[in-house]
Amino acid sequence: MKRVQRADGLRQLLLSDRQHDLKRWPTGQPDPFAEALCAGAPVAVSAAQLMRALMHAGLPHEQFCYGRSDYGKTFVLDERDQLTEHNGG
Predict the structure, then answer these.
(1) What is the count of structural domains for the chain?
(2) How many C-beta atoms lie closer than 10 Å to residue 88's C-beta?
(3) How far apart are the C-alpha atoms of 79 and 58, rounded to whole Å?
(4) Residue 1: inside a domain, yes or no?
(5) Residue 70: which domain range?
(6) Which residues share a beta bridge with 43?
(7) Where does residue 65 rank: exposed (0-12), middle (13-18), buried (19+ CB within 10 A)?
(8) 42 class by beta-carbon count within 10 Å (0-12 exposed, 13-18 middle, 19+ buried)
(9) Cα–Cα distance between 85 and 58 in angstroms, integer?
(10) Which of 15, 38, 40, 41 is deepest in the core (most CB within 10 A)?
(11) Residue 83: enclosing H or E segment and its boundaries?
(12) DSSP character for 69?
């Protein structure tokens, strides 16, 4: 795994974006991703999820767009809110 950046507030951005989506989620169905975000647990996050959360917050998101440096990558947001690139394995 390659260290990418400190991600203060990113967990909350991802959670807010996910909660917006949960309005369409069947009532009573658990959402493991949202639960992990709320619990402060490590979560795997796609470049698309990062792009969407940042875009909806009006923050720079271009590096995650098609053809850019982080397009198609998967990251891990750990319990200390450190974002790292996940290289598989």
Answers:
(1) 1
(2) 5
(3) 25
(4) no
(5) 7-85
(6) 77
(7) middle
(8) middle
(9) 23
(10) 15
(11) strand 82-86
(12) T
